[in-house]
Design brief:
The protein is mostly beta strands. It has a six-stranded antiparallel beta sheet with strand order 6-7-1-4-5-8, with no helix packed on it. Strands 2-3 form a two-stranded antiparallel ribbon. It starts with a strand and ends in a 12-residue tail after the last strand. The chain contains no helices and eight strands.
């Protein structure tokens, strides 16, 4: 990856989901713009706050999709990431979000 780019693989649970009442909501149903979670597979030289292996929250509609070995991935700028969930403990006590 180059500069401030991040390579993300969408999490499989971002497909269909269930409501609290048990109703299945298909992935194609769009009530509002929905953010998605993904796993970081690679980062560029200028990326400062995200590491490979982190889970990130982002808007998948605004990103560039690429296919690597038959699987879909997204390429985005670090600034397009809304949140980072990681197990890093060097600056805190646990989950960082």
């Amino acid at each position: 990856m180059l500069q401030d780019r991040v390579l993300v693989k969408l999490s499989p649970e971002d497909g269909e989901r269930r409501s609290s009442g048990g109703i299945v909501i298909p992935a194609t149903a769009q009530v509002a713009r929905r953010l998605s979670w993904g796993d970081v597979l690679g980062v560029g030289n200028s990326v400062r706050n995200v590491k490979t292996g982190d889970r990130v929250l982002f808007n998948p509609d605004d990103q560039h999709e690429v296919e690597i070995q038959g699987e879909g991935h997204l390429v985005m700028r670090e600034r397009d990431i809304h949140a980072v969930a990681t197990e890093r403990t060097e600056h805190g006590t646990g989950l960082y979000l």
